[in-house]
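Researcher: I need the complex structure. Ligand is 2-acetamido-2-deoxy-beta-D-glucopyranose. Inputs:
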Amino acid sequence: MILTCGWISVALISSALAFQAESPDARAAEVKNAFQYAWTNYVNHTFGSDEIQPVTGMASNSRNGWGASIFDGLDTLLIMGLKDEYEQALEHVSKVNWRVSNDPSKTFETNIRYLGGLLSAYDLQPNPILLSKALSLADQVILPAFDTPNKIPASYVNVTTGKPVPGNQVFLAEFGSMQLELVRLSQITGNSTYQELGLNIINRLAQVKPRYPGLYPMLWNLESFTPSDETIQLNLWEDSVASMETYLKSTTANGTVFLGEINDDLKLLQTGELICFIGGNILLGARYLNRPELDKFAKDLTDGCMTAWEKMPTGLAPEAWSWVDESQRLETFPNDVRLAMQTFGFIPQDKSYDLRPETLESLFYFYRITGDKSYQDKAWKIFKSIDTYCKVQYGYSRVLDTTANDTFKYLYLIFSDPELVSLDKYVFNTEAHPFKLPRPIQIQHTFS
Ligand SMILES: *[C@@H]1O[C@H](CO)[C@@H](O)[C@H](O)[C@H]1NC(C)=O
Ligand SMILES: *[C@@H]1O[C@H](CO)[C@@H](O)[C@H](O)[C@H]1NC(C)=O
Ligand SMILES: *[C@@H]1O[C@H](CO)[C@@H](O)[C@H](O)[C@H]1NC(C)=O
Ligand SMILES: *[C@@H]1O[C@H](CO)[C@@H](O)[C@H](O)[C@H]1NC(C)=O
Ligand SMILES: *[C@@H]1O[C@H](CO)[C@@H](O)[C@H](O)[C@H]1NC(C)=O
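Model: Output:
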């Protein structure tokens, strides 16, 4: 059987990977080695580019050529204690000119990777270079995106002119992910301009009544945007989790729970690895809002995602899968569907794995919040599969974007002292960059 890790085909060698119980320290050290392998390759061959292509070892620049891997890697280098590598990275950071790029800045990516990376490194180890770069980036590249009729950020900004690129379509996941970075920048600088812009988006969003409470369409019109405080966001979150349970949850005959999709009022029984952060997110919210009745939904979804890893012969979850649910009669489906349901418990659709971190992200929240060590073991199995099937000459495929850095960061943190980036003191942005909370909260399990 041939499966793929990113765009690499891997011949299947063994049906199951040997699983050894090792100490968390030994596991953390092995994850650190794997990260260093990817990092050293990048430094040796393509330092300063956005990313290295792991198979050819050539540079590529998908994020404006400012060195995205470096900005994305700053916090990981600090967390793993890689001091020399960090100094070298910081040297690069100090020299970047935000006004120079061959491409327009994609507001969402620039915000979560570059601004997020800078602020997170600043929170872990304050340094004036990081803050001044964060401010110049925000002022020169990110704030110009808000120069639109409704102050909803445009998708792209021309960094030379400092003007939004004309275009009328914006994505919920993009403008809805601007808040953490902008709020944190205001907290650190004491200048409220940034957070006002970020929170205005949520206020505008909350005025729009969607068809299913809390479930908003993905694509929005920038011109006619009709769709602050913490309560609004928490209420929106609770509505959306309730609607997920009512409208999207689906259970197979075997009792496995997956989250479906709605398209034109039709429930589609399909999902993918990208969605697998949701179990961890629901558990985090359940604890923060003291809603223990949501724990089971969170756990069922995470277990469902784990099934997608565990049932595949490589131990790597497919990018996308579908299923037949308990209300349907399996015998009425074609042979291949029945066979897949019997073999895997779902139907793999896209059998590539893009080194995605979402399931590991959920396992990280489950481990830190419940203290249950079995989540460490699950994460370790995933790491061993990645190390077996995805390691190539110049790093880990597929590293065309920098997602694998989140993957290694979550893995490392799962095996490290829970006080390292404690969930009581930090909140993670969508690119896995941790920001310091203004006041500590109580979310994490008390590890003795
Ligand atoms: C990177 O370069 C150093 C110094 O030339 C060398 O010792 C090391 O083996 C190289 N590592 C990788 C992974 O390319
Ligand atoms: C993360 O950053 C490193 C170093 O910048 C880079 O090699 C790579 O593109 C990114 N992803 C992975 C897999 O490390
Ligand atoms: C930015 O705008 C200038 C002036 O209109 C144009 O020449 C340039 O090509 C644009 N840059 C990008 C990256 O689109
Ligand atoms: C806050 O930041 C904005 C955007 O850079 C700037 O225009 C304004 O002058 C700043 N306010 C203060 C008090 O520094
Ligand atoms: C269905 O559940 C049974 C009993 O728990 C288990 O043995 C079997 O492996 C499951 N099948 C699939 C395809 O998940």
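Model: Summary of the prediction. Residues 10 and 389 are 7 Å apart (CA to CA).
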